[in-house]
Amino acid sequence: MQVPVGFLSKLWSLVSFLPFFILLLLLGSVKAVLIGPVAAAIVFFGNSAVIIGLWPAHFIWTYYCVLKTERIGLVLKILIGILLPLPLLLLPVLAIVGSLLGGIGYGVFVPLMATFEAVGEGVTDKLAHCFLDGTAGTIAGACTVVRDVTDFCFHSYFSFMDDLIEKMGDDETPLDIKLSYLPRSVLIVCIAVPVDVLMISAVALWKSPCMLLKGWQRLCEDLVGREGPFLETVCVPFAGLAIILWPLAVIGGVIASFFSSFLFGFHAGLIAYQEASFQMGLAYMISAVAIFDEYTNDLLYLREGSCLPRPKYRKADIQKGETGQNKVRYSATTEPAEKQHGHNKHRRVVLHRSKTFMQTIQRLRPIQIWDWLFRSCELNGRILLSEGLITSEDMEEYITKGRGKKLSIKLPAWCILQCLIRSAKSDSHGLLISDDVEVTNFNWPKEKVFDWMLGPLLVIKEQMKQLDINEDEEMCLRKLIMTNKNEKPSDWDDSGFPSDDNIKRGQLQAIIRRLQGIVANMSRVPSFRRRFINLVRALYLEAIEAGAIDGSRDVKRRVKADVASENIGEEGTAADVEGSSNDTLGNIDMV
Questions:
Q1: Residue 88, by phi and psi: left (phi above 0), alpha (psi -120 to 50) or beta?
Q2: Alpha carbons 287 and 196: distance in angstroms, whole number
Q3: DSSP letters of 244-275?
Q4: How distant, in Å, are the alpha carbons of 294, 312, 315, 324, 325 from that of 319?
Q5: Residue 330: its pLDDT value, please?
Q6: InterPro entries from the entry (predicted)?
Q7: What's the CA gap between 56 and 232, in Å, rounded?
């Protein structure tokens, strides 16, 4: 789009924008007043009922798993048994407060944001969307929130507990603590928590006016000059809304700083325990304030570093520093002055990567990675269904009982393994999810959850490159990952795997087990379970209509009823997400 140049052009852009923004704000506010209470009530009562209703079961089962597990030592079990009632008793209170605040925020902001999104690029019939978007879609989204919370309480929680009570391997040792270290750590916590809470909260409050003014200044400059986040037309309607809501963001930052300061104080006790030193705990208590001050300076583009002291709180770092100082002193006394002068003259200058280069990289959004995985599962699911590796019994078990390792774990693991094999064969630097889309460290989403997933996948890809998988082995792997246990090389003796190399078999089985572990962690995300059930339902109905399987009448009737009820809600949200979903999926090929 054309960016206004000159004072008059910028002034006209601002003046013409204000009535447009005010009308959208009023319309969105009206929808928030009408729809917000309904959505807030659904979220509040639904989440509170689920969490409080399951609270007795969670309370008893948590204690049972903690007492039964072999992964926790005796001393730590006793300590957890004493301290565990406090968070468990606070859980219903936190659930009620969190559901209330979350429901109010969802009911107010979703209709408001949907109204502004309706005038973005790629949306046809903007006038109708301005009135309809954020109404039925908000209510359907509130029901989805309750469903995701229910999935977490029913599925994810018990999945975590099942992992806790699993038997340990021969090379694993239980996690335990030393009683002699506890008094030191408790004392550090009692000192560090009040100190860090006061200091970090004071720093946040002191810099909050600067954050408010600098944020307003930057947003107003971008709004008038149509630069930064408001360069695109789709972002312009959010300009005034962002300026109005910026004080809430500043208040949220101060509140988040207050609560995070407690974590810094507790972490000081952990440092004192790990380093077996009272001084190291105090050093971290002081260093935590300096770290926070330095972070806020970088965030607000203030002076570099921090004026507060930042002592080292790891003995290894102190020893490295002393070793480095000794080396410097030794070189200073042994080398001639001329040689030192020559070193200083030819000192290497390290150039840092330009921020503008990083800003020009278009990062993939988390939903794009999510959509790639589910579309890949859909296409590979059809192939495996036609080959008989997935049966109607597998799908019916997952639909009715919500369990089925072959579908929820093995199918996504095969999709990821197929991507890794393709990336290894093409000698890609990252993960090749299509012919023209390569996922690397530069465009991978910034979220920590995805960072933890990308690192292991890149390592596995390099291992696959060394294994040199051919087409026959790849075709056989598809069957082995779906049907075999893959625990030891002898499990593949009668499988028809082309290679007889037990080392290669063992490495491939280890990779498969690791991928299944990654997928098992991913399956605990509530949205994963909801979307995967919808995927299995669609495959089930498609296979019945194509005559590939003979499904049960009861299951078929149930699936059709569920799909029909979800389609009613999706009709209200289809218009809300139509434009964004097209941009999200792009041209990514999922096979």
A1: alpha
A2: 10
A3: HHHHHHHHHHHHHHHHHHHHHHHHHHHHHHHH
A4: 24, 10, 6, 9, 10
A5: 45
A6: At3g27390-like (IPR040229)
A7: 51
Containing 431, the helix (H) or strand (E) segment is: strand 431-432
Q: What is the pLDDT of residues 101-128, one digit of tens each?
A: 999 989 988 888 888 777 766 677 777 8
* Ranges assigned E (strand) in 377-443: 431-432, 438-439
Ordered alpha helix ranges (H), 69-166: 74-83, 85-117, 126-132, 136-151, 157-164
Helix axes 278-299, 182-225, angle to 10 degrees: 0
Residue type, 259: F
Cα separation, 327 vs 573, in Å, equals: 66
Q: Please give the DSSP secondary-structure letter assigned to residue 168.
A: P
Residues 514 and 453: their CA atoms lie apart, in Å, by 11
Cβ pair 229, 165 in contact under 8 A: no
**Exposure on the CB side of residue 591, measured as CA atoms within 13 A:** 6
Rounded CA gap, 131 and 359, in Å?
35
Residue 191 tokens read as: 């000192």
Q: Which positions ≥6 away from 129 have C-beta within 8 Å?
A: 118, 119, 123, 575
Q: Residue 61: what pLDDT? A: 93
d(CA 498, CA 476): 8
Identify the CA nearest to 540 among candidates 400, 426, 419. 400
**Cα–Cα dist 2/7, whole Å:** 15
Residues sharing a CB contact under 8 Å with residue 487, sequence separation 6 or more, in sequence order: 509, 513
The candidate with the shortest Cα–Cα distance to 491, out of 514, 509, 511, is 509
CA 103 – CA 142 distance, rounded (Å): 8
Q: The tokens of 332 are what?
A: 């200073």
Neighbours of 382 (CB within 10 A): 16
Regarding pTM above 0.90, the answer is no
What end-to-end distance do the CA atoms of the chain give, in Å?
35
CA proximity to 506, closest of 472, 406, 420, 497: 497
CA 87, 92, 98, 101: dihedral to nearest 10 degrees?
A: -140
CB 261 within 8 A of CB 223: no
- Cα angle value 10/16/20 (rounded, 5°): 135
Predicted local distance difference test score (pLDDT) of residue 17: 65
At 7 the pLDDT is 53
Residue 500, CB half-sphere, CA atoms under 13 Å: how many? 0
pLDDT tens-place string over residues 486-506: 777 777 777 778 878 888 888
What the block records as the tokens of 485 is 């246990």
Q: Residue 340: what pLDDT?
A: 44
The three-class DSSP label of residue 439 is strand
- Do 81 and 67 touch, CB atoms closer than 8 A? yes
Sign of CA dihedral 443, 446, 450, 454: positive
* Residue 380 near residue 411 (C-beta atoms within 8 A): yes
User: Which regions in the chain score pLDDT beneath 70?
Assistant: 1-17, 120-122, 222-240, 303-307, 321-366, 434-436, 441-451, 548, 551-554, 556, 561-591
Residues in the chain: 591
The residues that bridge with 432 in the sheet, in sequence order, are 438
CB 134 within 8 A of CB 112: yes
